[in-house]
Amino acid sequence: MLHDRILVELDKEASERRSASGIVIPATAMLGKRLAWAEVVAAGPSVRQVAVGDHVLFDPEDRAEVEVGAKDYVLLRERDLHAVAESDEPARDLGLYL
After folding, report:
1. Which of 22, 47, 80, 86 is the most buried (most CB within 10 A)?
2. Is 42 exposed, middle or buried (0-12, 13-18, 19+ CB in 10 A)?
3. Distance from CA of residue 35 to its chain's centroid?
4. Could you tell me if 75 and 7 are in contact, meaning their C-beta atoms sit under 8 angstroms apart?
């Protein structure tokens, strides 16, 4: 990866949604502008805010798709990201305070 580019893999489970009554809404249904979650699989040397393995939120309309090794990925710039998800694990680097 070069400069501030990020390679992400879309979450397959996040593509389909369920309504409040349990009806499955496919990813192809148009419901206005909706952001998508993906996992970072590679990052360029100028990327500062995310690391490989992070889950990021981005606009799926502003993307460039690429196929690498028979898998589909999305190529983004770091500035195109809207959020980075925090892990569910408790922070391990915190010490005990008395």
Report:
1. 47
2. middle
3. 10
4. yes
Residue 25 CA to residue 18 CA, distance in Å, equals 6
CA pair distance 40, 88, nearest whole angstrom: 17
For the chain, the residue count is 98
Q: SS3 string of 80-91? A: HEEEECCCCCCC
Tell how far CA 73 is from the center of its chain.
11
* The one-letter amino acid at 35: L
Q: Chunked in runs of 10, what are the mean pLDDT values of the chain (98 residues)?
A: 87 64 67 78 91 88 82 89 77 56
The closest alpha carbon to 36, from 6, 72, 9, belongs to: 9
**CA-to-CA distance for 30 and 25, rounded, in angstroms?**
10
- Interatomic CA distance for residues 1 and 43, integer angstroms: 6
